[in-house]
Amino acid sequence: MNDQTALITGASSGIGFELARCFARDDYRVVLVARHLDELKEAARLLHQEFRGVDIVLLPFDLSRPESADQIYAETTQRGFQIDALVNDAGFGETGYFTDTDMQTELDMIQVNAASLVHLTKLYLRDMVARNSGRILQLGSIASFSPSPCQAVYAATKAFVLSFTEAVQHELKQQKSAVTMTILCPPPTDTNFFHVAHAENTRAAQHPASARTIAEEGYDEFMEGAARSLPTIGAKLNFFSSLVLPDSMLATLMNTQLHASQK
């Protein structure tokens, strides 16, 4: 039996849940973090149903609250858990012209998608570096690579995650640390994201990738210590487009994906 522990935020559904499933399959203790306890309990029920005997810990914390990262770290420390794998999956979006969208929603988005990610990374990475073992998976997006009109703040948070991750990856190499950090950049995926972001009827939402496919491919590359995971051909094409097209054209292309589908 594996005696390692993985902590996954945003673990009650979508890619976060599917990543928790990958860890459970590999006999990790899984610490599931999300806002709603009832949703965490349902996620735990499904995991127990598939993987009997898996050790599951539920931590209901709202990462839009700045104090949550410290509270999560204190809770896992108090319980004596060494976090061998940290997955910063929690995140959400909002769709619409920036002049029309809600300011508090976007401030909460910055807190969840960027600030809490940095905070949790700081707390657990220090421990990992001190013992020279551990791995961290950061959730980016294909939106990390280009400006995204009608999801301006969301795309900016994902660009931040990309820049932050790549910088810390370089620092870990300079420190000659065995700790690895991977950024997973999925394409539009079949999760609750589009509902929360009020984007169910956009072109981007019409043919999403499977959350399980994204998680399993990302998990495999994460375990190999890859710097970046671009699951599916669509994600790879988006990335390569960002290397050759100017930002103005990328913004135009992204904008068309966030307009209503003509189906």
From TrEMBL:
<dbReference type="InterPro" id="IPR020904">
    <property type="entry name" value="Sc_DH/Rdtase_CS"/>
</dbReference>
<dbReference type="InterPro" id="IPR036291">
    <property type="entry name" value="NAD(P)-bd_dom_sf"/>
</dbReference>
<dbReference type="InterPro" id="IPR002347">
    <property type="entry name" value="SDR_fam"/>
</dbReference>
<dbReference type="Pfam" id="PF00106">
    <property type="entry name" value="adh_short"/>
</dbReference>
<protein>
    <submittedName>
        <fullName>SDR family oxidoreductase</fullName>
    </submittedName>
</protein>
<comment type="similarity">
    <text>Belongs to the short-chain dehydrogenases/reductases (SDR) family.</text>
</comment>
<keyword id="KW-0560">Oxidoreductase</keyword>
